[in-house]
Design goal:
430 residues, Aspartate Aminotransferase, domain 1, Aspartate Aminotransferase, domain 2, 2 domains, four-stranded mixed sheet, 16 strands, binds pyridoxal-5'-phosphate
């Protein structure tokens, strides 16, 4: 038994499933999770001192590479003057100003500690602002684990717009609550039009991942986005862009800057905290001013705007703002995708790839999927074999076929060549 197995067994005694977030448990792919002992640049080392090239980068945040010296120094400096005050600091203003500069749709921003808090608070705010209860989300999009968002549509195509057929997608979510969430298929313009025609005036908010990363990587069509913006405007509903994953990852201005859409509210997390527990939601001043202490929508947090997390976030945003950062990251990620595709073709494995900025999708399918349903039809068994073959070669992919992958600026040519060499061997084995 290796040290990872020993730690996993020990962890399971005091931590449910041995992990503090379910996907870490390797349930879809099987096997023993790697317990990380340290990380640097594009690499991490496990409890057995085996080195892996990291292609999840903490599920997105570590865009400048692990333990970037400038970020480490900023964190150390901040920590020397204590870790939390529960009173405002100048750093929070600087971070808010920087976010508003980089994302012009965000006129005001409130900091929180996780993406879940950001989306949960944005929904409450949208409901408080509109005085309506109903929200629309899309199948396959994950927005954290607030009750209103752990909802699945009733089975059968005809029931998608009937929230009375909904079911909670987690134990503990009240049946009474799920009727306030409509779950529609991603990229389905007519479903959206139909729902707005019937009950648009009851819709408080539409929330979406503007480039989905929790059902592998799925791009929205321009028609889908423009219908969503038009319909929400027409009906006075709040459009919430959940950019927790895509913000500062697909481009400096997030997915909204690539799509030319101006959302009413935006949720941020991951990169904006540089790997620290830090997230935010922001948008139109008119809506944000409904938040306490100005308005009657309550939202608060002991550790919100934490000074150490703010220091990591500010330094990370400074680094990604340097000229050429996203051109380089995007180019390297595209090069990696080409390498994966060529390796699969050589081995005769049906395979497709896609990427936006430093976020990518690998699909065991002939074509890039465009909906959750299409993702579920990709070859999950082939993915599992590929995952383990890559792990044996020292490359750590997301341990689930339903997750996007992430690169960093530290994934240089030598690292990419090593990943592609590993992929060539791995495709031959599956
Ligand atoms: C798009 C999106 N929104 C929200 C969340 C929730 O963020 P957190 O895990 O920080 O609560 C995630 C997490 O992966 C996410 O990908």
């Amino acid at each position: 038994m290796g040290q990872n197995d020993i730690l996993f067994e020990r962890a399971q005694k005091t931590i449910p499933g041995g992990v503090n977030s379910p996907v870490r448990a390797f349930r879809q792919v099987g096997g023993t999770p790697r317990f990380v002992s340290k990380a640097n640049g594009p690499y991490f080392w496990d409890a057995e001192n085996t080195r892996y090239i990291d292609l999840i980068m903490s599920w997105g945040p570590m865009i400048v590479g692990h333990a970037h010296p400038e970020v480490v120094q900023a964190v150390q400096r901040a920590a020397e003057t204590s870790f939390s005050y529960g009173a405002p600091t100048e750093g929070e203003i600087e971070l808010a100003e920087r976010i508003c500069e980089l994302m012009p749709s965000v006129e005001q921003v409130r900091m929180v500690s996780s993406g879940t808090e950001a989306t949960m608070s944005a929904l409450r705010l949208a409901r408080g602002y509109t005085g309506r209860d109903l929200i629309i989300k899309f199948e396959g999009c994950y927005h954290g684990h607030a009750d209103s968002l752990l909802v699945k549509a009733g089975s059968g195509l005809l029931t998608f717009a009937d929230s009375t057929q909904n079911a909670p997608s987690s134990g503990g979510v009240p049946q009474d609550l799920v009727k306030h969430t409509l779950v529609l298929p991603y990229n389905d313009v007519s479903a959206l039009e139909e729902v707005f025609a019937k009950q648009g005036d009851q819709v408080a908010a539409v929330i979406l991942e503007p480039i989905a990363g929790n059902m592998n990587l799925i791009r929205p069509t321009p028609e889908f986005l423009s219908a969503m913006r038009t319909l929400t405007n027409q009906h006075g509903s709040v459009l919430i862009y959940d950019e927790v994953m895509t913000g500062f990852r697909v481009a400096l201005g997030g997915a909204q800057s690539l799509q030319g859409i101006v959302p009413d509210l935006t949720c941020l997390g991951k990169v904006m905290g540089g790997g620290m527990p830090m997230a935010a939601f922001g948008g139109k001043k008119e809506i944000m001013s409904k938040l306490a202490p100005l308005g009657n929508v309550y939202q608060a947090g002991t550790l919100s705007g934490n000074p150490v997390a703010v220091a990591a976030g500010l330094k990370t945003l400074e680094i990604v703002s340097r000229p050429g950062f996203y051109e380089c990251l995007t180019g390297q990620t595209e090069k990696l995708m080409m390498g994966f595709k060529q390796a699969a073709d050589k081995a005769g494995v049906p395979f497709a790839v896609d990427s936006v900025g430093g976020m990518f999708g690998l699909y065991f399918a002939n074509e890039i999927p465009n909906s959750f349903e299409a993702v579920t039809k990709t070859d999950i068994e082939a993915f599992k074999k590929f995952f383990h073959a890559m792990l044996d070669e020292g490359v750590y992919l997301a341990p689930s076929a339903y997750e996007a992958g992430f690169t960093s600026i530290a994934h240089d040519n030598a690292v990419l060549d090593a990943i592609i060499a590993a992929a060539e061997k791995s495709f031959q084995k599956i």
